[in-house]
Structure formats: structure tokens, C-alpha cells
Amino acid sequence: MPMAAAAKGLAVSRSTLKLRCRELGIPVWPYRKLSSLEKLIDRVVELSHPGFQFVVSNIRRDIEAIKMDPSLKIKDEIEHLRQAMYDLKYKKRRNSRVAD
């Protein structure tokens, strides 16, 4: 969940939650990273290519690893895939505007 929602649920300010996270060794709140990976899975599944099942399982493993250690970085191959999917979405959106 977003940090603001977590802070509200714990009845503390965002700043207090951030400070406590840093004390516990959580350098960044992982919500946006995890949300981005979940959206990536959705985009990959939309393509429904049989070879992508392996990719989806790798992304899910990364999600679980990040949940255990939020300081982990996204693997390079997944980062490249995320960028490629963004580029496809951007080009599709741009082409639909040109057609209008």
C-alpha cells in the first residue's frame, strides 16, 4: 500500500513512518516498485506469448524478494523489459493520436 495509507492505518505521520523504516533498515518504501512490477506482469500476460510464462515467474520471484528486502534493486533484464514495455505503450498511444 502507499506510504500515506500505511501511515494513516498506523496512526502516525509519514515522516514518523519514514524515520522508523530507516531505523529498521528499509531505505525506501517499496510500494511504487512493487506496483510497477505488478503492472509489468499484466502487460506481459496481455501479450500471451508462451515464452513469457518464464518471465512472469521471474518477476514474481523478484516481487517476493523485494517484499523480504525492500532495498533490492530490480534486475537488469527485468528493468530492460519494463522499459521496452513502456516504449511499446508510448508508441501505441502516440500512433493512436496521429490517427485521430
Automatic annotation (TrEMBL):
<dbReference type="GO" id="GO:0003700">
    <property type="term" value="F:DNA-binding transcription factor activity"/>
</dbReference>
<keyword id="KW-0805">Transcription regulation</keyword>
<protein>
    <submittedName>
        <fullName>RWP-RK domain-containing protein</fullName>
    </submittedName>
</protein>
<comment type="function">
    <text>Putative transcription factor.</text>
</comment>
<keyword id="KW-0804">Transcription</keyword>
<dbReference type="GO" id="GO:0003677">
    <property type="term" value="F:DNA binding"/>
</dbReference>
<keyword id="KW-0238">DNA-binding</keyword>
<keyword id="KW-0175">Coiled coil</keyword>
<feature type="domain" description="RWP-RK">
    <location>
        <begin position="1"/>
        <end position="62"/>
    </location>
</feature>
<dbReference type="InterPro" id="IPR003035">
    <property type="entry name" value="RWP-RK_dom"/>
</dbReference>
<dbReference type="InterPro" id="IPR044607">
    <property type="entry name" value="RKD-like"/>
</dbReference>
<keyword id="KW-0539">Nucleus</keyword>
<dbReference type="Pfam" id="PF02042">
    <property type="entry name" value="RWP-RK"/>
</dbReference>
